[in-house]
TrEMBL record:
Organism (species): Sphingomonas taxi
Annotated protein name in UniProt: Nuclease
InterPro entries from the UniProt entry: SNase_OB-fold_sf (IPR035437), Staphylococal_nuclease_OB-fold (IPR016071)
Domain TNase-like: 1-91
Regions that span the bilayer: none
């Protein structure tokens, strides 16, 4: 895991396309750091809980070279689960809102 919305899989860096999580490297404030760490731990637990599917979106790769994918298990976005837990926001591109 890199953070709550980015992870490595088989040597490929994956950016979870449908969410934005608080930054951890470095956080802009203590609250963002706490939420970012919690998002990272929760997403790692969900990824390790069993098989999941990487769903491509229109744009394949972001400006940092990461593959953009929605992560699903049984048709449910794992990103949406983080949103429900208050550890992520829905994201569809563009400017992100600050967490501080």
């Amino acid at each position: 895991m890199v953070d709550g919305d980015t992870f490595w899989m088989a040597g490929t860096k994956i950016r979870i396309a449908d969410i934005d999580t608080p930054e951890t490297h470095p956080p802009r404030c203590a609250r963002e750091g706490r939420l970012g760490q919690a998002a990272t731990v929760k997403m790692q637990a969900m990824l390790n809980a069993g098989p999941f599917k990487l769903v491509p979106i229109k744009r394949d790769i972001d400006r940092y070279g990461r593959k953009l994918r929605i992560v699903e298990r049984n048709g449910v976005s794992l990103g949406a689960v983080l949103v429900r837990h208050g550890l992520a926001r829905r994201y569809g591109g563009g400017k992100r809102s600050p967490w501080c």
